[in-house]
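Entry for the shared binder. Reason: the reviewer on the internal report wants the predicted structure included alongside the sequence.
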Amino acid sequence: MTEGRQAPEKVPRFVPMRGFGAGGAGGAFRPSRGLPAAVAALALLAIGGLTTVHVVSALLGRPVRLVPYEQWARWASTTAWNDGRTLAVASALALIGLVLILIAVVPGRGRMIALRTGDPDLVVGLPRRALARALGARAGKVDGVRAAGTRMRGWHADVSVRTDLRDTKALAERVRAAVEDELARLAPAHHISLNVRVRGPS
């Protein structure tokens, strides 16, 4: 959570691209899914390497026994498809495949938030922490606010302020209006919902 009224340190990233108005900004700062892709690539590389070693060594007449192939083949030839172990292995493989498909299809949460600009061919990326600081700084400028902070959770911003005033409900409305004005000024490409909490004097 960010505290205080100090100005946010904005570190924007500018990405020229076509089709911004057609929704191209949504994927401009999408994470590359590098870690899952690397794990899948290493697994496929290991399987391919083992297969190559077994095939080449068998063709040379000196089979390598890195994998108990004969035992597995014997088990597969003598086990029915409706056997519990066969179903368990098939279910595990299907689950792994489904997880890989979901990782590839479902967009992840990037560290940058795309902001609209006056140029339809330009995307501006603002770090989530910088956006939280900007919203917290704007909330801290509202009359009656002693301290303010914002935390970003996905496409949701939690704004928390402290005040010495008794009428926390009216202050919460003013803080919400101020933060919404700041969001309108920054113009994020994706809608960001707000949750405002006001802590009065104890």
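Summary line for the report: DSSP finds five helices and six strands in the chain.
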